[in-house]
Amino acid sequence: MALMPVDTALAEILADLDPLPAETVAIGEADGRVLAAALSARRSQPEADMSAMDGYAVASDALPGLPARLRVIGTSAAGHPFQGRVGAGEAVRIFTGALVPAGADTVVIQENTSRDGDDVTLIAATGAGRNVRLAGFDFAAGGLLLPAGHRLDARSLMLAAAGNLAELPVRRRPRIAILQTGDELVRPGDATGAASEVVVSNVYGLAALCRAAGAHVDDLGLVRDDMDATRSAVRDAASRGYDILVTSGGASVGEHDLIAPALRAEGIALSVHKIALRPGKPLMFGRRADLRVLGLPGNPVSAYVCALLFLVPLVNALQGAAPGPNRRPARLAAPVRANDGRRDYMRARTTPSADGGLAVAPFATQDSAMLSVLAQADCLLIREPNAPPGEPGDGCEIIPFNA
Length: 403
What we know:
- The strands form 7 sheets. This protein has a 6-stranded mixed β-sheet with strand order 7-4-6-5-9-8, with no helix packed on it. Strands 16-13-17-21-20-18 form a 6-stranded mixed β-sheet, sandwiched between helices.
- The radius of gyration is 30 Å and the shape is elongated.
- The two termini are 35 Å apart.
- The chain is built from 7 helices and 26 strands.
- It is 18% helix and 30% strand.
- Pathway: Cofactor biosynthesis; molybdopterin biosynthesis.
- It catalyses: adenylyl-molybdopterin + molybdate = Mo-molybdopterin + AMP + H(+).
C-alpha cells in the first residue's frame, strides 16, 4: 500500500468542513477568538478634527505676518472642548487630543509660540491641517475594521473597541478530547523508577497547541492496551459532543496498536492512514457524523509534528481561520543529505543571515523520541521527497514554531 502524500492527507482532513456556529461574546472575552463576520466601525476615529499636539488653534488664512500677535480667547482640552469660534486675530489654547474649535484649521505647536498674559505670539509659519488629525483620519463610521476569519489579538481588540463595538461575533471554540494509550504510561510525578515506565508527555503539548489555536480541551486520561477499554474510551468521547477526538499511541500495526481496529469497530471510517512523512508515518484520520478523529503516533516528537501539521490546521479551519501552517523562506546554514520518498520535517534552529533573512541548521539527532531536541528547536526544516543534498546557502523552507 502506497503512503499518502502529506498534502493529500491534509486536504482529506479538511474536506467537507464547515466552520462551527457563531456566537456573540463581550469584547473583554474575545482574545484569541476568530471573527465569524466582518466588523464595521460604529463611529469615526476621531469623530471630529482633533489636535495632534499641544499648542494654539488658529485660522491659517487669517494670520498676519510673522511674528503674529493673537489674543487667546479660551482653552480646548480633551473632553472639554471650546464652545466658541476662532476668528481673525484670535487663538485658542489647545492640548493633544482636544477638539479643534470652529473657525480654526491648524495648530501651532507650543514650542513655536511665546505667551504673554492673554496674548500669544506665533514665531513660525503654519498651514491648514498642520498638527490636526482630521475627522475619520483613522477610520470612518461604517467602514471595515476587520474581516471575517481574523483571529483577534491585542491590536485588533483595541481597534474594535475604538470602533465602539462592545460585543463581537466569533466562532464557537472547537471542543477537543485527548486520550493517550499505552500500558507503559504513567502521569508526571507518578513514576516509580521502573525501567518499563514511560512518563506521559504528549497530552500536555497537544493540549497547549490546541488551546493556543483557540480550542477548549479535555484530557480523557490514559487508556491501557486493551480492545474493550479502547473502544469504551472512543465510544464515550463520541457520545459527549466533541468536535475532535485526538488519540496518541497505538496508531501503528503491532499487536498492541489497537486504535485503528477500535475506531473501525465504533463506526469511524478511516480515510487517512500511513503518510509519506517523517516523523509521523502512522498518522490516521476518520469521521463519524460530526466527530473527527485524528490518531497521532505515540512517539512524542512525531505526535507534536503531526499535531502542528494536521491538528492545528483542523482547529483553525473549524473556526473559519486560515488553516496554516505558515511556511517561511530561509537558507541552509549547514549541509543536509539527500532525502528519500517521504517529506521530512527536521527539527532545526535559525539564526539571522547576512542578507537579512534566516539561516537554518538542523540538529544532528532527529530521533522521534528526542524531546530535548524538540525543545531547543525553533522551527521545522522541510525537506521534500527525493530532495537532493543541500549545501550552505541553498534556499529552503521552514515552519517557525512561533509564527
